[in-house]
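Good morning C.,

I know you're traveling, so I'll keep this short. The sequence:
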Amino acid sequence: MSKPAAVDVFAQRDAWQQAGAVAIPLRANAKTPAAGRSWLSTPSAAQWQALPAGKACNLGLVCGAGHVVIDADNAEAVRNVDAQLAGLGILDKLPIERTPNGGRHYHAKLVEVPHGFNYSLLARQLGAGELRAANCYVVAAPSTIAGRSYVFEQGGPHLLPALRVMAWRDFDWLLPVGAGAVDRVEVPPVRLLERSAGGAVEALLDKLGHAQARSRRGDRLERGQAVGKYGSTSQAEAATVAILILRGWSFDAIAALFEQTQPAHYRLRRAADANADAVLRVAYLRATYGNVLAELASNATRRQLALAWRTVEQAGASGEGAEAERRVLLAMLAHAWQVDALTFCASRRDLALHAQLSGQVVDAARQRLHAERVLKVRRPRAAAALWQGLRYTLDADFVASLAAGLISDTSCHRSQLIQGASSATIAAGSVRRTVDAAAVVWARQHCGPVAKRIYIGLGSAALPVRTLAAAASLRVDRAERALLRLAAHGLAVQVAEGAPRVRSGAGRPARKLVTYWLRGAVDVAELASRLADNGAVDRVEAERDDWRQRVQAMRGKVPAAKRLTRPRRKRAQR
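The tokens, ready to paste straight into the viewer:
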């Protein structure tokens, strides 16, 4: 492979700089910076100006500000990294360079890189290589070493600005356990609903505030001084931080509470002046917060729930109803993360606040998720536990598929998620209005939502109506009507009739025979394309827009006071 000209290096430097990367000159036919050991403290522009005119050089890229590089040094590492990045869905979108020894440089963009992390070797099971994130550099194309050049195998610098920004926890598989600050978490991996501190936290902080000092100056605590059920004051402070994290408190809110109550070790962090005291206290609390949060997030169940949350958060939804289901599912995953279990209790109000939806919409979405077997719902048995709301159990297989980043046909059918769509509408509180053809199939003017619940239970084996109705939590007559609608569109087929049903307690045969059904030859995608060809999608969208305009017009005519108040019923005169 021929040695590239020096002008090629400068052209590539300009391309990287336009893409937002930092490029530095390296010595010709070498990997060392031209500026020597001062390359990190010398600005990039000054290093290029100090380079003699016309002198050949190699090109280096400084990692940092979210620009990271995965350096795979051998074929095993290349194969494993390719498989992992393909699983994340970003392999075909990254700028990838081939090194002279057959390795690869994968350029990516990350956020939430732990403070103080610069680079680390890859995990042993992946192969030889490094992850470079800050205060380091890599050799870039078209640099030449011993007559062999770095070349782009895929893409180029122009892809860097448009790269999908990944979270640090999405790349933790690259590094060995405990490498640097890999397991350190800065914020909870899921969005939690903020709650009040509670009486238990207030009582614990009160006990910590009265912890007795060991020395006369009052600057040291007695070693092993128990606080309540905790063996020491530091354990009690860590427990307080853990409770507040699970209650949705941010670090700033926790720091403000500790500054107000001045508990134990936090109170005794002293220095020469008041400003230094505050810095020491904040540093101590931040270290405690990071350690506690890392411990909470490292649990196996919470890690799986966090990955499932990430998948649902990055997914889109087909239609307004599916968007409501997605938000409610995010709220339920957050509640499950709080209690570290797939079974949890949540009230309607908490789900509505987390999902930013009304209570009626949450109830409807919860019923659809229950019908689609994403979760199970039970009421608490004890009357004293009614304040906990309903008891939910998320389907373990469904959560595992989401944690693996897989939105398969089954999970798409069960939750109507769309792979790779953005979820920016959660923070804004708005609902998507895009109607997709598959959602029209289950619209009321076609098959209907009840028929969708029945269709989920259909398969290649014939099942009686009563079994299908029980699986969908429906009455038998409603299930029969839904099956007839499915049969009219070819989604269901009646195969046989059995013995007549017997009424309970009567002993007389019913009028209708027991019918057996299985899934028809027409699938949902085929029917959706047929309806799309007929203009059903545009018609449904036009009907929704027309209805929204009519509702807004009606609300504009009626005064707000009359809209918000219900007319009182007149009592009957005795």
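Safe travels,
E.
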